[in-house]
Recover the amino acids of this structure.
């Protein structure tokens, strides 16, 4: 990982968003952020791009919505475990969050199907 000084000098010092921030404050905040990233999976899930990556993969079909089509363990090993963005996220937390996202996606698909049925004034044939 890049030191706070390197990060400041190479990227943040001249960014408009950091114009009122001094290096010492930046360094303290970066160290606290890194500690939080290393110790709190919920923080990683909510405050980094990992959730957006998984949501996008569900949306595009790269990650199947149905668990039977690709288990959380298979998804973790084939799609996420080697990515830098996921290095501070333990598998158990990924598995829990994926279960929730898949449930939400199923609910959304069902809601969309019922809405389509109402709009068409017809019925949807589910079996045979």
């Amino acid at each position: 990982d890049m030191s706070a000084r390197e990060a400041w000098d190479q990227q943040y010092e001249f960014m408009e968003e950091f114009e009122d921030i001094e290096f010492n404050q930046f360094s303290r905040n970066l160290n606290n952020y890194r500690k939080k990233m290393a110790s709190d999976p919920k923080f990683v899930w909510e405050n980094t791009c990992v959730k957006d990556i998984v949501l996008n993969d569900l949306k595009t079909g790269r990650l199947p919505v149905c668990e039977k089509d690709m288990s959380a363990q298979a998804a973790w090993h084939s799609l996420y475990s080697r990515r830098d963005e996921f290095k501070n996220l333990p598998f158990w937390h990924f598995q829990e969050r994926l279960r929730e996202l898949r449930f939400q996606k199923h609910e959304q698909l069902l809601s969309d199907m019922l809405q389509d049925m109402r709009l068409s004034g017809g019925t949807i044939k589910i079996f045979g």
